[in-house]
Amino acid sequence: xxxxxxxxxxxxxxxxxxxxxxxxxxxxxxxxxxxxxxxxxxxxxxxxxxxxxxxxxxxxxxxxxxxxxxxxxxxxxxxxxxxxxxxxxxxxxxxxxxxxxxxxxxxxxxxxxxxxxxxxxxxxxxxxxxxxxxxxxxxxxxxxxxxxxxxxxxxxxxxxxxxxxxxxxxxxxxxxxxxxxxxxx
Length: 185
Description:
It contains seven helices and two strands, in the order ααααββααα. By secondary structure, it is an all-alpha fold. The termini are far apart.
């Protein structure tokens, strides 16, 4: 009778069609195949999705995911402000509208607009990946876009920096014939 080691050696590298059978106890000791490593984006998206679901579960009263709407998303974004690290000067603050802060103030820390914008993008994708319909995605609601725009504008004013959307550069293609004409002149 052959041992499992001998069966593996016979099966590997030979043209023999011997099949090896594992004893029932050997089956439980087989290592599970490793899960593919998630990208940083996918890991963050999963964490964000789990955090949002936990927020809904802890809501008073708890909100099932199927009942979630854009108001719950707005509440979640406001809730996250308490964990923010971006100083947003209030209208009466001496540093309101100043590019640099030279002293301490009591203005609140908030979530930065860019962080919220990226978070909504990840949650929007996660919702659709987890069975949500694109047409009813609460993260894609226009009220969310308006809220994010207001946050962006208020944070920009508080820092004295007006937000200007960057224009995409168009690639200019130069034909070889144009180069030749320029070189011959």
